[in-house]
Amino acid sequence: MKERKRKYFHPIEVTLDVVCGKWKGVILCLLQERDFRFGELKDQLSSVTPKVLTQQLRELEEDGLIARTVYPQVPPKVVYSLTSYGKELEETLRMMEKWGRAHQKKVGENYNKEVSEAGLS
Amino acid sequence: MKERKRKYFHPIEVTLDVVCGKWKGVILCLLQERDFRFGELKDQLSSVTPKVLTQQLRELEEDGLIARTVYPQVPPKVVYSLTSYGKELEETLRMMEKWGRAHQKKVGENYNKEVSEAGLS
DNA sequence: CTGTATCCGGGCCGATACTG
DNA sequence: CAGTATCGGCCCGGATACAG
């Protein structure tokens, strides 16, 4: 569904490759709290369409971050949860959350757009 | 150059929005070590084209993560360095690096593709 | 050395409708 | 309830050439 690079030049590319999807960060943060059903996730991410949500979830699953548990009943019930690999991201996610909260107002404001000029080297 | 979302539903989106570019993670990791000139970055990221490298750097600059210092001389010399905001990402980047190194072999291998079925809820 | 300018293909993501 | 199917726009990122 999503082709991963075979070769990475730097380990951080692995993490970013896996976490950089429109909704993946929030999904992973939510799943740190507790397990979620498909519909619950859809409610939390109010503007996501079912197709895209499914895509994001499938990719996270393929990359081993989350698990999908199907309860065979009618109507169907599907629960998403973190795997141990996903849980190991918890600290990282928390730090990203913290940084984001701290700098939310700064991002994209061009607050340092003045050109800095230094003397000769 | 790159439009940022006005509203974020979750703080982690801010961080991901800023860090998710093809070369941004590696660039930020490199700059943790020391300052780099444009050409040095180009050498480290062997397959990047100057246009794309410039784009990535400009966006990081707009978002306040890095600073661009021009030495007015011939031939020109431009040095990129972390701002204090960029430095605050250091711990986060290190953790992403660590997770990536640990799970590089797992990612994209579909190692848990078997369907898990649970009993009735 | 440090970039711009131009062209362009592919993939991410959304809208909408339909299904077991 | 938890998804598929289909269509399509936009923008990211690469190729290539050129510039101060």
Which terms would index this structure?
Arc Repressor Mutant, subunit A; DNA-binding; transcription (chains A, B); HTH_HxlR (chains A, B); WH_DNA-bd_sf (chains A, B); 13% strand; DNA-binding (chains A, B); alpha+beta; 121 residues; transcription regulation (chains A, B)
- How many domains in all of chain A? 1
Distance between the termini of chain A: 50 Å
Q: What coarse outline of chain A follows from CA principal-axis ratios?
A: globular
Low-confidence stretches of chain A: 110-117
Oligomer: homodimer
What's the helical proportion of residues of chain A? 40-55%
Give the C-alpha Rg of chain A: 18 Å
Strand content of chain A: 5-15%
What is the name of the CATH superfamily of chain A? Winged helix-like DNA-binding domain superfamily/Winged helix DNA-binding domain
- What's the story with the biggest beta sheet of chain A? 3 strands, antiparallel
What's the total helix number of chain A?
6
Give the neighbour order of strands across the main sheet of chain A: 1-3-2
Mean pLDDT over the full residue set of chain A: 88
* CATH classification class of chain A: Mainly Alpha
What's this, in brief?
Chain A contains six helices and four strands. Chain A has 121 residues and is α+β, with helices and mostly antiparallel strands. The first copy, chain A, is globular and about 45 Å long.
